[in-house]
Amino acid sequence: MSLPETPTIRIGMAMWSHPGWKTVFPGLDAEARLTAYSRVFGTVEGNTSFYALPSAQQVSIWQRATPEDFRFTFKLPRRITHELSLRNCREEVLQFFRLFEPLMAKTGVWKIQLPARFGPESLSVLTQFLSLLPEGIGLGVEVRHRAFFAKGEAEKDFNRLLMDKGINRIIMDTRPVFALPAINEAITDAHQKKPRVPVHPLATGAHPVVRFIAQPHTPAAWGPGGKPADLGCADNLAFFAPWLGKLAGWLAEGRSPYLFIHTPDNSDAPLLASELAKQVAAHLQALHPGLPIPSVMLDSAESDGGQIGLGLQ
């Protein structure tokens, strides 16, 4: 595993555009929204590539809209991971990476999300599949089969495979949202779609990936259901607290983690991401002053026309 020369924490969200967000410039087109986002956040989850491939023109637009130090983390198509189960997919893999060639330098982690049916008996298939991928790219694998979370031989074999190849194990932390009862439609939807798996914060590569699936963060997003304290459960900040030390530890080891912040409907994810970034920065300044500090500045990204930010409607 080769570690990056200058470790850093990149913080982002599941998407760069959402109906519940607006910038100070009304009527921005899709390219401008990505540009505005990339001036505030250093990375984004490219989950749309899981459902459908973009056009070559769209890939070029994304390349043009982002600065050189921005990093995408595109997900491999479900055609490859779910329909073909990583088998007999050489042409699909070649097509995918040919399409994304303009963004190779700006993609920090290519994500392989595997379905819950993909179990220990399929590890050899994963090994063979990895040989089809371009050399030298950052990779992350997300599993959902229970055996890979049981701390038995299956999980050890999986982790060993990733460590041997310097591939990142993608870590899902869904504890915050599952701590809540289904008090509104967005939380109910999150309960149905997100995996309820144990959190095993193990770094197997140079770029640990954490997907923090949070509770609603603002009163508007809570609705009439009440806040965590009203429901007798811990809130986002309590669930996030252990990650402060873990992220700092990875930085100290020379790793560059990716942290992605979700809320049930993502309308208030930018505000939560900003608050958590401040906590990470404060922790590093207090206990690890020599480590680089992440910066997420809502409403402070400069543009030719004034200030660009991500406000909330």
Automatic annotation (TrEMBL):
Transmembrane segments: none
UniProt cross-references to Pfam families, sorted A to Z: DUF72
InterPro entries: DUF72, UPF0759_sf
Gene3D superfamilies noted in UniProt: Protein of unknown function UPF0759
The name this protein goes by in its record: DUF72 domain-containing protein
Species annotation: Shewanella amazonensis (strain ATCC BAA-1098 / SB2B)
Higher taxonomy: Bacteria, Pseudomonadati, Pseudomonadota, Gammaproteobacteria, Alteromonadales
